[in-house]
Amino acid sequence: MNLAELNAAALASIPEPRWYVEHVLAPSDVAADNAAEHRRGDMFADSSRGMSPVAESAHWWRQRADELRSGSAAERRAVRQGFVLTRAQTLESGTSASTIRRMLYRGTWWSPRRGILAVVAVPQADRSDPHAVHQARRCKLALACTAAALANPGHVISGTGAATVHGLPLFTRPTEPQLTAAPPHTPGHRAHALVRPAGLAADEITDWYGAPVATVSRCLVDLARHDRRDGLVAADAAMRELGLRPADVDDALARARGWPGVRRARSVLSLGNPLAESPLESITRLACHDAGLPPPELQVRIHDPMTGRTDRVDALWREQRVILEMDGQVKYTGKELWREKRRQERLARLGYDVIRVFWDDVVHDWPATLVRIRAALAGY
Question: What domains lie within the chain, and their CATH numbers?
Answer without folding.
Answer: 3-152 (no CATH), 291-378 (3.40.960)
